[in-house]
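thread from #wetlab-drylab

HS: before we spend reagent money on co-crystallization trials with magnesium ion, can we at least see a predicted complex? here's what I'd submit
DV: go for it
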Amino acid sequence: MSSFSVSTIVALATPSGVGGIAVIRISGPRALDVAASVSQKSPADFKPRHALFTPLFDARGVEIDQVVVTYFSSPNSYTGEHVIEISSHGGYVVPQRILKVCFSLGCEPAMPGEFTKRAFLNGKMDLSQAEAVADLICAKTDIGRATSYKIMSGQFTNLINGLRQQLIDFLSVIEAELDFEPTEVPALSAKERLKCLEGVHGTVSGLLSTYETGRRIIHGAIVVIIGSPNVGKSSLLNAILSEERVIVSTTPGTTRDAIEVQYQINGLPVQIIDTAGIHETEDTIEARGLSIARSFMDKADLLLWVHDNTTPAPDFSFNLQTSPYGHTFIPVINKVDLISPQQKRLYIKSSSHMSPLFVSALTGAGIADLVDAVGNLLAPASTDSEILLTNARHYECLSRCSESLHLASAGLNDGTPLDALALHVRTSLSSLDSILGVTSSDDIINNIFSTFCVGK
Amino acid sequence: MSGYDVIVVGGGHAGVEAALAAARLGCSVGLITIDSHSIARMSCNPAIGGLAKGHLVREIDALGGFMGVAADSTGIQFKMLNKSKGRAVWSPRAQIDKRAYEAFVQKHLTSIRNVDILQSEVKDILLTRQNVSGVVLSSGETLSCRSLVLTCGTFLNGLIHVGARKIHAGRMGEEASDGITESLVSLGLRSGRLKTGTPPRLNRETINWSAMKKIYGDHDPRPFSFSTQTFSPPNEPCHIVNTHPLVHELILNNLHLSPIYCGEIKGVGPRYCPSIEDKVVRFPDKASHHIFLEPEWSGSNQIYTNGFSTSLPEAVQLAALQLIPGFEKVSFFRPGYAIEYDFFFPSQLSGALQSKDVSGLFLAGQINGTSGYEEAAAQGLVAGANAANLVLDREPLSFSRDQCYIGVLIDDLVTKDTREPYRMFTARAEFRLLLRHTNADLRLSEIGHQAGLVPDASYELFLKKASLLSSILSDLSQTAASAATTNQLLSSVLESTVNGSTTLSTLLKRPVVSLNLLQDFGLFNTASFPLPPMPLQDVLDEVETSIKYAGYIKQQQIQVARLKRNDQTTIPRSFDFLSCRSLSSEAREKLSLIRPETLGQASRISGVSPSDVAALSVLLVS
Ligand SMILES: Nc1nc2c(ncn2[C@@H]2O[C@H](COP(=O)(O)OP(=O)(O)OP(=O)(O)O)[C@@H](O)[C@H]2O)c(=O)[nH]1
Ligand SMILES: [Mg+2]
């Protein structure tokens, strides 16, 4: 099995081409040799956790740059392996030349997330922390980073561990009842049982409900602008961005293909998509038009449904709200600069129970409110203290946990036998275990002995 | 040099099953014991079975073992435990007539043509190139063998403590054995020390019984053995008394005289079988502890005090007991005591219970760190069968955790290296809902028969049961009851009624609907079924369980399938864990010490995290 050898990997750790300083990270058994070789020094010149100022040379011995090299010896490094960090001047050229010489010395380009994977495999972080790092790398904005950081720094792990402990305590009572004679174990009342299960279930459901927001914070949200031709969709997009990004004209049908724009609302990465107008026939929105917009709407977290007030007041209770797509949408009435307050009231009255937002893409009136409304719908406030679920696998595990907890709670009342009840609780516990990559089976038995006077 | 195919050392419950299994497979067997009259002795409580242990006895029986048969013939009170807690944890238990039990087993053993019982003591083990080749007896004589099964119980360097008094013995009144530990250690095996205890035995005549509550067994007793066809055992009562604060105070005042508390005992005792000293110290809030008085044999004047295990000095034990109502004048035949003995860390064994280093050396029972007759017998059966399989050059028999409690037991032993005497609990079986005492034969008879352990007659009975089970199940799913009858039946048990006609299996899904109830309403009739009463009862239980538990069973089967792959990935014997840099250092150390045979075993070693397992699975492929 000695044939298995760990490769030495290298990659640029800072965004390519951005910033004055670039960091290149090397990890693996040969990291130190590579550093020594590119700096034409001996490995002994590098002391763990010390920075060394040195020129670097390419394969032909030509100096590339003056850099700072820091050595982290195994296992006291990010990955647990020998790690070299080279801080060079930024830009594209210098870092690329350094990478090239590392490749020529036998380093392999790191796959995305590979440093983290190694850190995980070497026991430097638990599974959920490793996943948070991956999210951190993907995170596009500051709140995204803050959220990932909360998970990485162990707050999430602590929360899950707290829930695990509650289930372990609960199971200990059940298992003790199953494995010891009745006189020995203080049985829990049905009410106490339910309270415990519902407590855990509540926290799990709470976490699950943060996923939509959490996912959007890391991976971004998609907002699609739809509406009839010429209502001012493109103008609205320009107004939101406060720049003339999209062509606007008086001719209906100006926008033919969808236009995607990256934007941030309250620190949330948002992709806004401006679509071609949906044709409106005499009476209603054409099915064909809907189907064109449909592919965009399917991806959307939120729709902005734009109308202009020069056409009769639309009936917002109709169609989209009851459409199979079931998307959240904000009705937007554009060109409010063209109407009197009186007409506006009339408009509100006729648009049934939906309360549309009135804006003017031309004057900018109402745009700030619209942006706030979008932000609130996509990422409800109070994201500072609570932990947001950002990872699809965690969501999956917690969903399974919630399902089993639901069965367990239901089972307390419907005559489910105790051994089957234990199965549901065990299954929910192992779903939590798999988030952190741990096991609990021994803990239950140990807990029984430390808590109850069991045995004869 | 004369000899045997298989030599078994020790005549306890492990030794007996080992000798019988090896003999069943056709090997010549020599059973060496210090005292042939104490073969199959029940040295602690006069009971067999109980929670999770009852499952083991049923499984032993389904694999052709003898414990269940002997218990059925010599039991004096039978009870199904956990009846209200779910079908998977129902566990049979019986009070046993100890004298009758050992006599019954001894008689059977002597009737087996290819088993010789040799009254002697083994002093050394002989090896030829890391293969066991024989043993040296205390007489200096040597006996050759191809396989050796050691089942030495608490006899290896046994040391009894009663207060400050120390006695070298394997059990009270029986000599300890020395030489085997030293011999195994010289072969490179690692040993440790454990402790267990037993309560005093009281004189029936000195107890005032009128003050005590009687407990009887079930009125519809059920046997352990699948081959027991009709069953009407005795139903003799046990009694129950309680300790009180004055008793506890007396114990606390004399704690310094207990060898456990003054540090005299170094071995680790079982937490699930605490001494009365332990209970009083660790649970000071409990005002009272139960003591069960169990007769040691039918009409016995020797009474076992279940719940009062102790190693306090004799005088203190007596004084404490005499404070209990009914015990004012009590005297004992012998005091409770603690015993320390050597065991060998079981992770040195394969799943077949063979030493990973010395071929032909098998260990079973307390020498592996377990406690309990049932745990011992289960291992004895597997070790004995595999000792024979080695001789016969057959594949070893081993079991997975989803197959049986025996599989859970052995897997726990070889992966977890117990630090206290290991006892079976249902909680140890993660696939508990699949491992019911009622389906032990469905799970194991086929395997046992193929291995040559289950005789044809038992196997034929099993086949009959299995086919009856599936035909009843298919009938129930096809037979519908009219809405009228159904609703009459449902209202009789206060259940919500239905609209149309319903199949019987749908009805049976309701917790309160049983086959008996169907029978009461003329929807089901057991009269025509071609089986004797006891096997039939098993079938009917399984019918109900497979319908009522169908959902849970399916859920567990999915869980089994998910883990199966790890258990099927074998790790080469030469695999060098220490050089795997991607494993955590704790995992590297543990894995190289234990040398698991499969990825599944590796995953269950403490200190080996799921990420180590992930890394290992990658390494095993490359
Ligand atoms: N008065 C007024 N005119 C506006 C406003 N918003 C847009 N317009 C005008 O409406 C016309 C159509 O604007 P666009 O933004 O191109 O409309 P669109 O919905 O993107 O049109 P298509 O892409 O053709 O579907 C242009 O002449 C804009 O100047 C507004 O708020 N007030
Ligand atoms: Mg447009």
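DV: The domain at 9-124 of chain A is CATH 3.30.1360.120 (Gyrase A; domain 2).
HS: ok that's useful, forwarding to the group
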